[in-house]
């Protein structure tokens, strides 16, 4: 068995996003939840190890990433891909730099690239500045993220603050000239002592030009976008069969702990479509009320009539006020635990098509459901595929699940996801 690409993702939605792009480019991919205890059993081209390491202490993120690296190397991975968010999410302490550095040290490599560009989802990098849609990162709503507020759009500066290695830039004029020019630029940057280069990319064509220049680079660090250009380096071409999943059935539900602008719109659209939705209040959880039991009692009689939504999704002022009263981490952890308990309860009550919104929230839910690995299916919206998994909460039965990144998906995502399966 030859594992071509070994991937380490810093959150669970990000992992399915990366797996989705690899599958669309023709790779057979498995996503594992955490580092597997066993060797790889399936014949696949890529494994994405999903960690929940984006917002934990840097030393823990490094330790978990190195453990994932050791497992991937033991499976023979020929190239390592560290996946972070397309909005470069990092806490003020910052995990992207320390994890990149530790992986470089472990792999004995003195150069890698870094680019969150993902044009399919309107994330573009120009002159080292990250745009989300038509605006700079720090004007996109990400400056108000509950856990990873991004207030500086200059990625060279953001990454340099997180690493001792020198950070440089491969700018759009070089990328536009193709792989040979990119390789020349890499050689020049290395000679100047640059260890990590941010790469400009404003289109899929840029990423496809970058791909061949990364062949043989031991470590690539990026959002999911760069993945579209890597399978071809291994002689792999797109194939429809890579995304086939078992038939779906069972009850449907959505749980959402994401507070992004996109998720707020998706919650409103689900309600406007006349579907049942229940908001949960973090302050009542903190006050000792069994909010999960309440939500499950609310949902149970409704499930037979179609998908329901349970959400803590709220606007930035409401989130700030809760965080002011409970503390940022405490509020996040408490809400995640509650939503995870609700997700588990829903699956125990027969839900077999589950939408989870939010990266941290997805991590908590997938762990609570007792899922060890996921098979990746077709893309619902860019970056968000349906997946299939055996879940301990379903008595070991199969479950269709989609992990929606906070910022991804059209406004109708919570209804579209179910019609897409039918
Ligand atoms: N109403 C709320 N008040 C405070 N924190 C919240 C609220 N709702 C959700 N959270 C927390 O905010 C964080 C959202 O992060 P995440 O799930 O990664 O979403 P996203 O993908 O949008 O970043 C989680 O830790 C979640 O528990
Ligand atoms: O790259 C992306 O934007 C996503 O794959 C991702 O990592 C999203 O994380 P959340 O916004 O926390 O869901």
TrEMBL record:
Residues 5-228 form the Four-carbon acid sugar kinase N-terminal domain. It comes from the Bacteria. Its EC number is 2.7.1.217. SUPFAM superfamilies: YgbK-like (SSF142764). Keywords: ATP-binding, Carbohydrate metabolism, Kinase, Nucleotide-binding, Transferase. It is an enzyme of class 2 (transferase). Residues 253-414 form the Four-carbon acid sugar kinase nucleotide binding domain. The keyword NADP does not apply. Signal peptide: none annotated. It catalyses: 3-dehydro-L-erythronate + ATP = 3-dehydro-4-O-phospho-L-erythronate + ADP + H(+); 3-dehydro-D-erythronate + ATP = 3-dehydro-4-O-phospho-D-erythronate + ADP + H(+). It holds the Pfam family SBD_N. GO terms for molecular function: kinase activity. Belongs to the four-carbon acid sugar kinase family. Catalyzes the ATP-dependent phosphorylation of 3-oxo-tetronate to 3-oxo-tetronate 4-phosphate. This is 3-oxo-tetronate kinase. It comes from Variovorax defluvii.
């Amino acid at each position: 068995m030859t594992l071509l690409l070994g991937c380490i993702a810093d959150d669970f939605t990000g992992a399915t996003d990366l797996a989705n792009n690899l599958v669309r480019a023709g790779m057979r991919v498995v996503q594992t939840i955490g580092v597997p205890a066993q060797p790889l059993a399936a014949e696949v081209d890529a494994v994405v190890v999903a960690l929940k390491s984006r917002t934990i202490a840097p030393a823990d993120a490094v330790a978990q990433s190195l453990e994932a690296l050791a497992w991937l190397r033991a499976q023979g991975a020929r190239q390592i891909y560290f996946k972070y968010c397309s909005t470069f999410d990092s806490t003020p302490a910052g995990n992207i730099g320390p994890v990149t550095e530790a992986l470089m040290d472990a792999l004995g490599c003195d150069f890698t690239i870094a680019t969150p560009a993902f044009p399919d989802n309107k994330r573009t990098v120009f002159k080292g500045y990250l745009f989300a849609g038509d605006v700079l990162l720090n004007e996109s709503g990400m400056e108000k993220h509950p856990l990873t507020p991004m207030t500086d759009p200059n990625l060279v500066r953001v990454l340099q603050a997180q690493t001792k290695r020198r950070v440089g830039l491969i700018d759009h004029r070089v990328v536009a000239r193709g792989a040979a020019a990119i390789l020349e630029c890499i050689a020049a940057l290395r000679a100047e002592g640059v260890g990590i280069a941010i790469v400009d990319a404003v289109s899929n064509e840029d990423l496809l030009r970058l791909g061949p220049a990364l062949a043989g680079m031991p470590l690539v660090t990026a959002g999911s976008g760069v993945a579209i250009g890597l399978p071809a380096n291994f002689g792999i071409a797109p194939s429809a069969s890579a995304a086939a999943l078992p038939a779906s059935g069972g009850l449907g539900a959505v749980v959402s702990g994401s507070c992004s602008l996109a998720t707020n719109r998706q919650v409103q659209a689900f309600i406007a479509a006349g579907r049942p939705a229940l908001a949960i209040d973090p302050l009542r959880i903190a006050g000792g009320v069994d909010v999960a039991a309440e939500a499950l009692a609310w949902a149970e009689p409704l499930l037979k009539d179609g998908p329901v939504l349970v959400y803590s999704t709220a606007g930035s002022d409401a989130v700030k006020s809760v965080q002011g009263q409970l503390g940022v981490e405490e509020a996040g952890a408490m809400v995640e635990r509650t939503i995870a308990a609700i997700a588990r309860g829903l699956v125990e009550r027969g839900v077999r098509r589950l939408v989870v919104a939010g990266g941290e929230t997805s991590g908590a839910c997938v762990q609570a459901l007792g899922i060890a690995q996921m098979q990746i299916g077709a893309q619902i919206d860019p970056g968000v595929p349906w997946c299939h998994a055996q879940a301990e909460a379903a008595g070991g039965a199969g479950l269709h699940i989609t992990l929606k990144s906070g910022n991804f998906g059209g406004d109708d995502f919570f209804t579209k996801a179910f019609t897409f399966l039918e």
